[in-house]
Amino acid sequence: MQQKRAIGIDLGGTNIRIALLSSSGEVMGIHKQPTHAEREVGQILEAMASGIMHLINEYHIEREDIVGVGLGAPGFLSLDAGVIHFSPNLPTVKETPVVALLEKLTGLPVYLENDANAAAIGEHWIGAGQGSRNLLCITLGTGVGSGFILNDTIWHGSNDLAGELGHTTLFLDGLPCNCGRKGCLEAYVSATGIVTRTRLALSGGRSSSLSHLLAQGENQLTSVMIYEHAKKGDRLARELLEETGKYLAVSLGNVLNLLDLETIILGGQVSQAGEFLFRPTIEEVERRAIRAAYHPLKIVPAQLGDHAGIIGAAKTAFDHSRGN
Amino acid sequence: MQQKRAIGIDLGGTNIRIALLSSSGEVMGIHKQPTHAEREVGQILEAMASGIMHLINEYHIEREDIVGVGLGAPGFLSLDAGVIHFSPNLPTVKETPVVALLEKLTGLPVYLENDANAAAIGEHWIGAGQGSRNLLCITLGTGVGSGFILNDTIWHGSNDLAGELGHTTLFLDGLPCNCGRKGCLEAYVSATGIVTRTRLALSGGRSSSLSHLLAQGENQLTSVMIYEHAKKGDRLARELLEETGKYLAVSLGNVLNLLDLETIILGGQVSQAGEFLFRPTIEEVERRAIRAAYHPLKIVPAQLGDHAGIIGAAKTAFDHSRGN
Fold this sequence. Notes:
Chain A has helices at about 40-60, 100-105, 115-125, 185-190, 190-205, 210-215, 225-230, 235-260, 275-290, 310-320, and strands at about 5-10, 15-20, 25-35, 65-75, 75-80, 85, 95, 110-115, 135-140, 145-150, 155, 265, 300. Chain A is α/β, with parallel strands linked by helices.
């Protein structure tokens, strides 16, 4: 008997990543293509189907050895129904029964999962969350994605809408957020939020080597560049990352006081700031989380990088095939 | 065969309530006595044991028909170990193995539960949370107690420290909280917090019929009196309750965005303000909770009043006896 395999897909606004995985979590092959999100949804689905077929052929896998396809997707989803209702970065995907459509195109069973949840499942399976029964996995990218593992199982909530840490309130009447609300955590600690706060500080007259970047053009000022300038000693860049850690820690302290988790995993481009972000985050969480006085906390970097989503999506397919 | 019964205890800083319950949740008898929290812990335990015996004798119950005793207690507990580590309102109860001690005194199996969790279990069983798979039950009293039911089960967290909604941060550098931190929700929306905010408003020169109360003595200004004055049309009292609802809603919105629950139950003396509190709370939650746009929310008053804790504690004993 052949070893069982699964396909994991990370359907993003920019790229579609498709991977072939072994049941131990090994990424055997990967196929990446631009999403071209402006295309018709049918074309996006066909691109995914052909990517899957490409991998199956390339690695000489028998179709019957594929337990299924896990599809990690952003936006508001109904998981059991297999529908993406709405996804800000995929404008043509609206009330789309992606599971039924992709099953028809591939002949394989397809399982839908929220992309941030897929990352949490991946990190819990073979990443930074191994052995932690209760954890929160956060991706600090353009937005803030997050997923809870509770009792070793992803937490979907009553309507598949759980895990929106990015839209918890940090300041009651704070900066505007992309979601239309004000003061959301995402408006402060996402890559976009950090850049916004940097612009505000610079326009307020703060002197910093970052002001040269801004003068070079709109797109030069990024969270990664802010980290680079912090490393070189720029005072404002360091303060902004320190403040980012503190803000993040307020929300993490809230989560810990509510749910008493063992582990918090930080991934995404912002988390690359390393100690400039982790140190202030951990210090402030220790001040705010009641459990910190009694039990050690683990606030750790993600281990799977960009692969967390595809690995977690594939795990979803393995779990479903075992009837979990 | 006789019907099975359980004992539920609510060990508070002021009173000890002990109840005899049927397996359908009927409170058959109740025994209430002052805690005299300054007593030695051994005396408090003996008082509980004699209360239990009193009820068993009064209702002519055979000991073998009692499945066990559920003990709801405040503070930091280790549930499986049956230990109360520390409880602010029970100064003599420190690192006390209450389960072992009470089992020795009564000969009955004893199960420990956090008091706020016991209230959540009670409301979920036969109160306002019946039929809701995922809920948060909040008691707005001197402090803010809360307990989560997730997948029809109380959520304890990794170290029995879950459910501390009262110590989530509302304002990063806000009013001092009894826990030693700043800006906790409890410092704003507990009965104590509302009175503090009222005093601040009055000392800031706001005119209100409440200022006469304050002039009558320290203890005249209570959250219940503020509600009474709101009913009579006092503008400041109404504003304070409106603001209380808004503050509470920020934290509830956060919980809903994190966990996507079906139901939130509000109990305790502050919740008696009824529409003066519930209306602004619901309005603000609808602005902040993502799920509000997609699925109806239930934010409802508790139904079991002071009995929620004893009912939930007894349920804990029934569940344990069934091996849950």
